[in-house]
Fold each of these.
Amino acid sequence: MHFIKHLRNLHVRSMFEKKYILSQARCLQTDVAQKTKPKKYKYPSVYDPYGSRPAPSEKVNQLAEQIITLTAEERAQIGPALREILKHPKLEKISTEGLDLGAAAAGTNTQAEEKKEEKTAFDVKLEKFDATSKLKVIKEVRALTSLGLKEAKELVEKAPVVLKQGLTKEEAEGIIEKIKAAGGAAIME
């Protein structure tokens, strides 16, 4: 009711708008008054989607006791024997090659090591150079990277730095030889 008093003092453009707003407010007020509190449902302490189950039969209890007395090797044979007797299809392993399994793929380290050995793209990294042959190394880097004199000088002074990336093994070895001839030391990564 207090809300409706404030609406009457509201400045509106026409009397029609004022009547419309007041009628809407009265409807809202009656809706709020008629609403009741929602029902609170009591949830079970343990959720069982299949409902309550009957207790296992005496025959099943005896079978469980017999399984407990078996050795680990004999228990391991139960699954394949049941699969054969019940004629279930044999489960095939799913190939995970090419999937990123994260830490779960710790057992596939041998495959990762083999892939590292088969590296096809190499980077050439300038490790160091003789101070006396700095100019020769800068000229060689400039020729290899097609940089300007200033950029090549800055690159050489930042050593150790990667000079070229994604090279074949032969190209990388050729560049390393040229840098060694100029007085620098480079490695292949």
Note: The mean pLDDT is 77.
Amino acid sequence: MVVLSQPALDLAKYSLLRATCKPAAADIPAIDLADPDAKSHIVKACEEIGFFKVVSHRVPIELMTKLEDEALRFFSLSQAEKDKARPPYPLGYGSKNIGPNGDKGWIEYLLLNANPLPLFAPNSESLIAAVKEYVTAVKKLSCEVAELIAEGLKIEPRNTISKLLNEEKSDCCFRVNRYPPCPELEAVGGKSTIGFGEHTDPQIISLLRSNNSTGLQICLRDGAWVSVPPDATAFFVNVGDALQVMSNGRFRSVKHKVVADCNNERVSMIYFGGPALSEKIAPLPQILGDGEESLYKEFYWKEYKTAAYKTRLADYRLGPFEKNQNSERF
């Protein structure tokens, strides 16, 4: 954990400082799931941005705030208590180090297997109970979104994608990130601190909910970074690498990152919906038009997950799995 009580912290040694201009706020598509044409709006957002906001989602706000409160209660423990949790390799509690390959951020986090959820630390029962309740609701929402995607693409049956998320052995995980305030930034005007470096999500889709603090940014097709206005009552949905492959590149997994704030704490909760480790990932036959060839090699999810875990955050992980490995990243 970042110890904010210390008078000074050498951010530069963590290579987190970046000279930045404040990005423009993005006009994020807001999809009302009660809209009869929601499926078309979702497909359009997946094609154009790879990212959208879901409202009218029927996940009770009480579940969100309860989990946020429990997570903050854990993060407020002494460092010695938090360190009793298992390290995040691959699951557990971590701070500053993101993954095993040198990526760092102004962050502390919990990374858990969502299917099933392990007890990761002493006296964590109330937090795990809140996570289980929340994950059950968000997993249901992820399946609903996946079925709307299938409908919008005219894929039958409509559970073609959602069944990958809903099967007993689905490889789903859950993450709670806390980005502490970074008051040292006021002394280095014109710079920002990386909370979580730019990356795409490897899974099929991920659903994010955060408090009302800013910090999340996404990269548009033209390479411009834009800020995502926070909405604590909504879920933000990312297209993941696996869905990019399943759509044969029609959808693009969205590159995103988080920057720290001088004064405000950001808390985000992300559900990553992935298939079973034994599942083969390839463009769906219904996606390929007459004479259209697959842009990707067929691979097992375990194979891709293993390869992704060996890369840095900013690496384009799908490159080795493309048939034409000289193609440019959108």
Note: The mean pLDDT is 89.
